[in-house]
Class I SAM-dependent methyltransferase (Rhodococcus jostii), 236 residues
Amino acid sequence: MPTPRDYDADPGRFRRGVRLTAAHVRPGADLHARIVRLLLDAGAARVLDIGCGDGALARSAVGSALRVYGIDAATAMTAAAVRRCPVARGDVIALPVADAAADAVVAVNVLDHLDRPELGLREAYRVLRPDGLFIAGTISRVDSPELAPFWQPEPTPFDAEDAQQLVAAAFGAAETEPWDASLITLPDRDAVRDFLQARLVPHHRAELLADALADRGPLPLPLTKRGALILARRAS
């Protein structure tokens, strides 16, 4: 089922996850920094970040030649992102952008929110210039296996396992850049709780699961992060 959208109802959940990742990610493992390098290597200038959240991609692009424009459906996110880049409110399946206006389109942890990801992919294709680059990021159904006795990600319509096939159906071809490594270390019981809450585990259940995991030990807990970037180009 699609990942629920609660970014206006509970923006603190999203921001808690962002802070947790920033505090405990392995040095050099910043996903948005990797995307910036891919965009620069592709010669992109005008980049549309759909589902931009609080503007993490624009923050990573500071000092580069990239001009990042954000789109997000949540008012709470656009209000935060406007400090970092031009931003508009809009939905991934109906982007308020002209045809062929962008050199690149980025969608990180966005298409899993859709019942039909192909609708979002169709819009991304529409707003890309010929030979423009599309980059999607998504996690695997077996992400964070160390937590599997207590919690596992719910399958979505756009997981790493099927994302390449879906993007290829829209663009004609696609390639995958996977990740599968110990990238985050949760230092204590509260970090485990926050990690679970950031992944939509209800607060009370996250507290109980964090207690159970802390009792089992040991902490700190390194987590194996699994997922992929999917890259495609619009036909020239």
